[in-house]
Amino acid sequence: MPVLLTITTTATEVAGERVPATDLGYLLHKHPDRVQAFPQSFGTLTVLYPEAGEERCTAALLLEVDAVRLARRRRGGPDVTLGHYVNDRAYAASSLLGVAVADVLSTARSGVCRSRQALADSAIPLELRLPALPCRGGLDVARRLFEPLGWTVAATPVPLDPDFAEWGESRYLDLTLTGTVRLADALNQLHVLLPVLDESKHYWQGPDEVDKLLRSGGDWLTGHPERELVVRRYLGRRGALIRLALARLAELDGEADESLDDDAAAAADETAALPAERRAPLNTQRREAVLAALAELGAASVIDLGCGGGQLLKALLDDGRYRRVTGVDVSARALQLAARAVRLERMSERQAERLSLFQGALTYDDERFAGYDAAVLMEVVEHLDPPRLPALERVVFGVAAPAAVIVTTPNVEYNALYEGLAERPGAHRHHDHRFEWTRAEFAAWCERVGAAHGYAVELRGVGEADDELGAPTQLAVFRRG
């Protein structure tokens, strides 16, 4: 039985400190000195470490598939063919491996590691190897999917039979990916792209597949040049699901997707509850509200904390009153998208001097955050686990201490007007939201943070307000003193 996936890293440096390679065990939440087996509904995933030294460490994930158990789990009537019992699922990196890894490494995929959070937030040197990867389209498709994510792709086609070269090559690749990538990003990319490359899944796909795709791919798929290919293959070429997924990705990317029909666009539009003649993308209204607040403040230097795809940065750079503009994000992929959004490669030298982009975590002290007239946290706070909010408050309001801070976040009360959310109490607008505040909860948070750090606070609403439920987005302007 071949090893289906190995994850290798080397010693690296984070925040000026040397980190041994064996800290990979902390990120995976699997101890290097143990061999651990995790039962799955279709077999067993075993995690072990063939090498575990300070300079180099490798985790191996071996999936043993029970073909009989897998066949018996299939929906529908009995199937008397042998195809469900004799196949490549026990030997190839298919959706079975993707599901097993997603389950066993779920905490690692979330990017949470309390004992090594700075390391979990950082891009580290990684090498992923899949010695038996089914890939429809061969090496060309593998490169098209992985290279835009920052990976160097090396692959050798697996022959049908080494003893009979004339039989040609199989559809399998021995694939190695190398790059400097955040481990959580790497695992989420594999979770999506394994079934995409195979163009097959072992389970029936329902409407919740779109949510699964966005949970694992929302942060990097929005700007992927092959995102339509990824979506179509991942969703099994099911037209309605594809249209909905592309619409939601377009919303996350801050752009309108004109190829979508009106029904799908309306389903993805957060302002679909409003009359058509007044409907405008809520992300556009948020951005305009933040820009208006910055203009009122008279800010000349602005730092966008959690800049994402860079739409706000682009608007700031287009306005000559902002002499210094900085974008920060924990995701290296987000910074690549931001650079593309502002057309960094085409900027004049004078224009480029106004812009800075760098990777950083908002829960750790960073001297680069300081010295700005205004800081913006636009749809950021709700993506943090509540226990980490005090760290963000201290770093942004206490250590960086800009003259003003602008914060936007969803109003959870307004969710009752959204089709699909009204029927699901407790559901959030985005798969990565850890919480969403009521107006009273947001006001209390703003009052407490402002009082603790010497800021006066003004609360506003963004978007068409409902008489009882308020506006869809809440905005706070903090002014020091």
UniProtKB/TrEMBL annotation:
Please name one Pfam family that this protein belongs to.
Methyltransf_12
Report the top EC class in one word: transferase
Sorted keywords for this record are:
Magnesium, Metal-binding, Methyltransferase, RNA-binding, RNA-mediated gene silencing, S-adenosyl-L-methionine, Transferase
Per its Swiss-Prot or TrEMBL entry, what cofactor is needed? Mg(2+)
Superkingdom in the source lineage: Bacteria
In this chain the Methyltransferase type domain maps to 303-395
* Ranges of residues in domain Hen1 N-terminal: 3-250
Q: What is its EC number?
A: 2.1.1.386
Reactions the enzyme catalyzes: small RNA 3'-end nucleotide + S-adenosyl-L-methionine = small RNA 3'-end 2'-O-methylnucleotide + S-adenosyl-L-homocysteine + H(+)
Which PANTHER family does this UniProt record tie to the protein?
HEN1, SMALL RNA 2'-O-METHYLTRANSFERASE
Family named by the database record: Belongs to the methyltransferase superfamily. HEN1 family.
What the entry lists under NCBIfam families is as follows: bacter_Hen1
Name of this protein: Small RNA 2'-O-methyltransferase
- Protein source organism: Nocardioides marinquilinus
